Amino acid sequence: MLTTNPFDDDKLREECGVFGVFGSPDAAALTALGLHALQHRGQEAAGIVSYDGEDFPAHRASGQVGDIFGSQDVIKSLQGHRAIGHVRYSTAGGKGLRNVQPLFADFEFGGLAIAHNGNLTNALAVRERLVKRGSIFQSTSDTETFIHLIATSLYEKIVDRLIDAVRQVEGAYSLVVMTQKKLIGVRDPLGVRPLVLGKLNDSYILSSETVGLDIVGAEFIRDVEPGEIVEITDNGLKSIKPFKPVKSRFCIFEHVYFARPDSIVEGTSVYDVRKNIGRELALESGVEADVVVPIPDSGVPSALGYAEASGVPFELGIIRNHYVGRTFIEPTDQIRHLGVKLKHNANPGKLKGKRVILVDDSIVRGTTSTKIVDLVRQAGAAEVHMRIASPPTTNPCFYGVDTPSKEKLMAANHDIESMAKIIGVDSLAFVTIDGLYRAAGLPGRDNNSPAFCDACFTGDYPIRLVDHQAENKDRKLSQLVERQSA
């Protein structure tokens, strides 16, 4: 029997979001607001480091942004005209407080704080080389690799040390870095992970998404370009491009699920792309039905697009309870058995006797899908058809997303017909990879030169997986195991 932890939506998880402010007396408060807007990118921990002209006040903790930075005393303790912040959902490394970012280190040139969105695919290899040279790591986060590479660089200027560091790593990353004099934003050469630049009066802002700019009333300037380093000082903004230009491979799952629907990523509205995916689903795999029902909240835009294209009415047949937190109640076996009922409840008047099309963004392990279909059937649905606003997820991500191993991915181990039987639907269909690309405004997927990183669907990994080669897979970042406090 498939069971569902009510505190696990069975979704792929983006592991973090970053935010930075330069040139505002309210830098820490603005950063806290920015992290609120980016909360969907990581809910396990958050941190802010500021610079007050002499020291680097810091506050980091496990939990959500509102709980950590809701106190005026905490914000007042983070003085200064510049600050960087981070929200985290752990992938590389563990959940210990030593891994909560931004990380900070004292160098011969002064202090440096760094926050990282993404994952390095050669972190183990670089780490082992650094340890042999005498580096002593304090965390199991691959972000610390940047700190040691900067520390051991023979270059004099900070930005040159940073360039030296990023040239030695492989993977997907967006960084915000803060020193006594600078705020620096960095994006990996393929631009897999997002980073945008904005301005609020005379202050510059870096954010993982445009919603971080919106919440503080900042003006969007542009995306930080793939492979670009943006250096912000009292003299203004400077762009450095240390890498040879290559075709970008932005993560297409940002459009499917990770980014907030009100964000603009790479010049495209996330909401519009998700509605377009629904339209593609209706064209590719339409079925006779009475009602289109989204699995809230992530399935809503695609369900709207499906309803518009098919002419089948849209209804909120499932209502989500937004007030169930991770620690609402001890997840005993009895509570787990309740499954999704703690977070989702059927709206029987819109389901009973109806042929229902359920629309969701993805299927990972299939546990939540099974429970929701059961919920809809118990409400009296005559037929249940499921349409998924992404292709089958058949491969794990190694670029900054918390993904189950291939053995636990339902689509990697079952064909669509088998998946439909396990989940309990009358029919199941996914948008095609070409349909997904069309929804994003392209003619389809160019297999010789794809526009996106879509490895979770295709197995086409654009960056080498150095640490995941067979001879490396059993190695660990650290032997230290931390006990988590209550």
Structure notes:
It is a single chain. This protein has 16 helices and 25 strands. It is of the alpha+beta class. The strands form seven sheets. The protein has a seven-stranded antiparallel beta sheet with strand order 4-3-5-2-11-10-12, covered by helices on one side. It has a six-stranded antiparallel beta sheet with strand order 6-7-8-9-13-14. Helix 9 crosses helix 15. About 50% of the residues are buried. Mean pLDDT is about 90; it is low at about 1-5 and about 325-330.
**Mean pLDDT score, rounded?**
91
Q: What is the strand tally?
A: 25
Class per helix and strand makeup: alpha+beta
| Uncertain residue ranges | 1-7, 326-330
Rounded to the nearest angstrom, the distance between the terminal CA atoms is 31 Å
Major sheet: size, sense and barrel closure?
7 strands, antiparallel
The level of helicity is: 25-40%
Strand order of the largest sheet: 4-3-5-2-11-10-12
Gyration radius (Cα, Å) is 23 Å
What would you call the shape? globular
Sheet-strand content, in percent, reads 15-25%
